[in-house]
Amino acid sequence: MSGSGAAPPAGSAGADDTGGFALSGLAVGYARRRFGRRAVQPVLSGLTATARRGEFTVLLGPNGTGKSTLLRTLAGLQPPLDGTARLDGVDLAAADPDERARRLAVVLTEREVPGLLTGGELVALGRHPHTGYTGRLTAADHVVVRWALGAMDAAHLAGRRVAECSDGERQRLFTARALAQQPSAILLDEPTAFLDVSARVALTGLLRRLAREQGVVVVASTHDLELALRVADTVWLLDHAGRLHTGTPEELTAAGLVGTVFTGDDLVFEPGAGVFTVRGERRGTAAVDAPADLAPLLRRALERAGWRPRASGDTGPADLAVAAGPDGYRTELDGAVEHHPTLGALTRWAAEARPPRP
């Protein structure tokens, strides 16, 4: 993150500041009037959680569990039905819009792309909560804009029109605009949606470093579960019943919550590896003998073919033995030894092979 290690301009949150989000008995949903009476349609209720300064908090959950509704409520775009959401001790629902804009920045998935603006002009819009009725930027405001662009590795986009930027570059600019507000917290709704793999990884890494180095609260929803479990400091996990579970990725994984929420008919979560695998026919156990850089790939290929690779260091018996050598791969199954010149050839063979009958 170019320039992100430098101290933020005056007014920014510092890495040593305390505070963050605190949800207490929060209920979110929709209130409508029907026949002159107020009808409440709750989506989630009884939510209690914290998101701390300097930490990257990720909101996870299957589709339809209320992630976007929760974020929109925290952002002040719709009122809570019950309970409170406080940021640094301030009840956001009771705060006036100007104060909320100074404390909280929001990056939503649904947004208009101001294609005629340059990247620098887009980021400068983040200063409007601080400019007063004239809307004019001071020299100090321009310093903040340059700092925000640098913090998101987007300084090279300052003079480029937003319409000419890639999806990943636009997302960096929108996040830089949020950072230019110098808020206490930034909320992002699926910031990696529509991005390719490299852009998703890069942006997620930037968000984590942004939280740590600038001392702000960063809360982001995502469907990129495996990546989130690798980089998040804290996870807010919504299950199908609308319950909110919180903890580190390792705590929720060890408790079996991640697997319970996301495992389906054709998908299995492997807690040790932190990845999902496609459920298929199980053929037997496999022992792998391969260099450290090749062994994980070999285990993954065998697992996809339906075998259960033994954990590294497990010397117990296995139905299939696979050894990598300089000229290919050697397999031994039920006393029969075969040679496979490539990993692809081995994988195709493994998908058809059958373990010995008991």
From TrEMBL:
Which ranges of the sequence are coiled-coil?
A: none
InterPro entries recorded = AAA+_ATPase, ABC_transporter-like_ATP-bd, P-loop_NTPase
Name of the molecule in the record: Iron complex transport system ATP-binding protein
Q: Which Pfam families match?
A: ABC_tran
Q: Which residues form the ABC transporter domain?
A: 23-265
MF terms per GO, please? ATP binding; ATP hydrolysis activity
Gene3D superfamilies registered for this protein in UniProt: P-loop containing nucleotide triphosphate hydrolases
Q: Write down the species.
A: Allonocardiopsis opalescens
Q: Which UniProt keywords apply?
A: ATP-binding, Nucleotide-binding
